[in-house]
Design a protein that fits this description.
alpha+beta; 4 strands
Length: 76
Amino acid sequence: MTHRHMNKQPSKKLIHEGRYLAEVNVELVVTEDEWSPYLTVEDACKLNDVREALKNGETTTAARYGRVFSLTPIIV
């Protein structure tokens, strides 16, 4: 079994759903393989939970995971 070098790198992901946007802190796992960088299973589940909460208008739930913004269209 070969040992692979692995680092975790802080990052932010933006989740847009309807008129809401959430900015969620995640850690990207950086390795030497072709799939790098990737999310941990926990962070992937967290992003799915945020997306589902925003989709249902549950901004308080989404805000547990990061900052939530309400988007307003600009009329040009």
